[in-house]
Amino acid sequence: MSVHIVYKQNGVKMMRPVLTRAEYISLRNGGFQQDNVARIRQGDEAVKTSLVQMNYSCLPNDDGTLKGSKRMSTTVGMDIDHIAPDEMASVKQRILSKQDELGLLMLEESARGKGYHLVFRRQAALSQEQNLKWASDLLGVEYDTGAKDITRVFFTTTEAQLLFLDDEVFRVEGGGGTGISGISGNPGISGISGISGKSGKSGESGGGTRQYPAEYHGIPFAEIIAKYWQVNNNGYEPTEGDRDTLTYQLACDLRHICGRNFEWLDQVIPCYDGFPLEQKREKIRNALASEFNGFPVRLRNTLNLFNGNGNVNANLNLNANLNVNDNVNLSLDGGDGDASLSAFHFQPKNLPIGLRESLVGVPESMHMPVLCGVLPIAAAYADQVETTYCDGNVHHLGLMSIIRGEQASNKSVVKNAVDVWKRQFDDEDMLARQREEAWKERKKGRKANEKAPEDPKVLIRVVPVTVSCSTLLKRFKNAQGHTIYSFGEELDTLRKTNGAGSWSSKYDIYRLSFDRGEWGQDYNSDAAESGVVRVAYNWTMLGTNGAMRKCFRQDNIENGLSSRILVAEMPDASFAKMPKFRKRSADDEASIQEAVTRLRACSGLIDVPRLRNVIAAWVEDKRVEAAKDIDHVKDVYRKRAAVIGFRCGVIFHLLTGKDRETKPCLDFAVMMADYCLYQQIKTFGEALRNEYVKAQDEGQRYTVNHSVFDQLPPTFTMEDLRAMKQGFCGESALRNIISRWYRDGWIEKTDAKHWTKCHSATLSQ
Question: What is the CB-side half-sphere exposure of residue 280 using CA atoms within 13 A?
Answer without folding.
Answer: 21
